[in-house]
Amino acid sequence: SGLVISSNPGATRILRVPLAAFEGKPLGTAPGLQGLAEQVDHEFAGFLGARSQHGLDHWQQSFELASTAAATPSQGPSAGHNGVTLVARGAVLPNRARLLVFDDISEIVSAQRAQAWGDVARRLAHEIKNPLTPIQLSAERLEMKLTGKLPDGEQAILVKSIKTIVDQVDAMKRLVNEFRDYARLPVADLKPVDFNALVLEVLSLYGEETATVPVHTELDDQCPRVMGDALQLRQVIHNLLQNAQDATPPERAHLGVILRTQWVETSGRVRLTVLDHGSGFPEHILQRAFEPYITTKPRGTGLGLAVVKKIADEHGARIDLRNRDIDGVVQGAQVSLSFETETPHQHII
């Protein structure tokens, strides 16, 4: 009848809902699980109808369960960052109770997507970049050959057209180079790093004389050193700061961007957080923000956060992206990464 009879701790951890509190109640009454419950009921109904014909002993389906949205059947290897991708199996027990078993395959899906985008990036670099230089050279040669041989009006059109071609070729080269760099991101060389010192080093490039949106720091002096690749961590900080500055509108620029480090003793990890005062992420972007070419910028490639995610994975860092909601109003977005320390945190009993 769709009531929760019992559940194990794994179900609570994966679904992020205290299922024990909903025993004896329909699964759909648990926060955020109405969509999942409806889909599970649908799968069981189809299974029971087909079991007698085909002798099936279980059904299997994948679902995307968003943190703020109902679950829907997965149509492929995609999952929102704040959501969970489940592969679920259902069977009917001898007492006619229904058994639902599921695994969290979010990390597997994320790795598959990153590999696929790396393949796309390499193909772009090879197939698109090669003809760009001949296009640019041919346009410049035309300008050189025809300059001085055309009436003034046609000469102006020629100059303007050649400039458009050259500018657009340069833009395409930058795009291809960014994708190439994403695909070639090297394996992280992890060594002890003083995160606060690294942050201050990067912030030397974000002084008041160069930044239209100021960066305010809140550095925790208790932070131990983390295991990281200093070069890649600098890139993470740059990408997050640039995204945060771009997201902050001029009328709120005075509020600045906040960069915070924090020693979280309970988890034994150091957390880096960057907060902006923009309009936040639309829900459809929030769920896929770490994929290449997912962006709210009119001219962006969407590779900034994709590179951050790839570096975080190399470091074994936990990453979280969310909108900052105050009294029901989105006040900006924040990205947090937590890193392992130089030596594992020791709990004293």
Structure, explained:
The chain is α+β, with helices and mostly antiparallel strands and 349 residues long. It has helices at residues 9-15, 34-54, 106-127, 129-146, 152-183, 195-203, 230-247, 283-286, 303-315; strands at 59-65, 72-73, 84-92, 98-104, 191-193, 215-218, 226-228, 257-264, 269-275, 318-326, 329-340. The strands form 3 sheets. It has a 5-stranded mixed β-sheet. A 4-stranded antiparallel β-sheet has the order 2-1-3-4, sandwiched between helices. Strand 10 (318-326) and strand 11 (329-340) form a beta hairpin. The relative contact order is 0.09.
- Radius of gyration from the alpha-carbon trace, in angstroms: 26 Å
The count of DSSP E runs of length 2 or more, i.e. the number of strands, is 11
How far apart, in Å, are the first and last alpha carbons?
A: 46 Å
Read across the widest sheet, the strand sequence of neighbours is: 6-8-9-11-10
Shape: globular
Query: Which regions are unreliable across 5 or more consecutive residues at pLDDT < 50?
Result: 68-81, 345-349
Let me know the largest β-sheet.
5 strands, mixed
The helix-and-strand class reads alpha+beta
Number of helices: 9
Write down the secondary-structure element order.
HHEEEEHHHEHEEHEEHHEE
Mean pLDDT: 82
**Share of residues in helices:** 40-55%
How much of the polypeptide forms β-strand, as a percent range? Answer: 15-25%
